[in-house]
Design brief:
Largest sheet: 2 strands, antiparallel
Distance between the termini: 31 Å
Strand order of the largest sheet: 1-2
Order of helices and strands: HHEHHEHHHH
Helix content: over 70%
Number of helices: 8
Number of strands: 2
Length: 263
């Protein structure tokens, strides 16, 4: 049953991605509502897949690397789809959907287990939710940063874009900064909730994750300060955004992957 639901999710994601690309390559193609209906169907099936794979080991939960990555991808898709409706950033959706398809395929064929109990631990649930949301928001900011790099490169080399409805550079940068602000607040709450609710936040097994997360928080805080106080824009904004996202990826997945490889 899970295989069928996963394949349905993959099929809808691929269809939504292909229709979105056609919309940008064809001036006569306007399928916004149809794309949204297909995309939300894909995300609903994706949610069902995660529900089965995470809680199948009840009374504990399977918070494996692939499951957590897939959950973050779902959050990114939900948030980015909502943002795209308001900010005309549809061009980013095919990349997010395609990456999700890779994760769903991987989860079907690669056994991955990391059992933990979230029952009667609301503090831990809050901390995990804030961590996932903050990483999803910073990942979306990184997508906007990469889009800014691409469009800026095309303009510098005076290349004509054969894409329709691409947002202007200034709009992309404003949205990037707004995402960094929201992500920064969520990251602050995530780290704070860890110290508040978790007894083993500074245990040897967690100190590396905490340390890298704090370094990423400092980098984002410096970035936002530099943007508003020193007028940092363009390449510096992009490089620091991407660097912070890499640090968060190392914090969230690095130690877990290393532990699984050594075990």
């Amino acid at each position: 049953m899970m295989l069928i639901v996963a394949l349905l999710s993959i099929s809808f994601y691929l269809l939504a991605a292909s229709l979105t690309l056609r919309q940008f390559l064809n001036t006569r193609q306007h399928a916004g509502k149809r794309i949204l209906a297909i995309a939300w169907s894909a995300m609903c099936f994706h949610l069902l897949v995660l529900g089965v794979t995470i809680v199948q080991a009840a009374p504990v939960q399977n918070m494996s690397v692939l499951n957590v990555a897939s959950l973050i991808a779902l959050l990114i898709n939900i948030l980015l789809t909502i943002i795209s409706q308001k900010q005309n950033s549809w061009i980013l959706l095919p990349f997010a959907y395609a990456f999700t398809v890779v994760l769903l395929f991987s989860s079907l064929f690669i056994p991955d287990h990391y059992l933990t109990s979230l029952n009667n631990r609301p503090g831990l649930v809050i901390h995990i939710a804030l961590a996932l949301l903050s990483y999803a928001m910073m990942s979306i900011a990184s997508l906007f940063a990469l889009l800014q790099v691409y469009l800026n490169h095309q303009l510098k080399h005076r290349r004509k874009l054969n894409l329709q409805n691409v947002p202007p550079l200034l709009s992309i940068e404003k949205q990037l900064v707004r995402l960094l602000q929201i992500g920064g607040v969520l990251l602050t709450l995530s780290i704070s909730s860890g110290f508040l609710f978790l007894d083993n936040m500074l245990a040897p097994s967690n100190i590396d994750k905490v340390g890298v997360s704090v370094v990423a928080w400092c980098l984002y805080a410096t970035l936002l300060w530099g943007h508003y106080q020193r007028g940092w824009r363009g390449q510096r904004l992009v490089v620091l955004t991407l660097t912070g996202n890499v640090l968060l990826a190392v914090a969230y997945f690095g130690s877990r992957l290393l532990h699984q490889l050594l075990s």
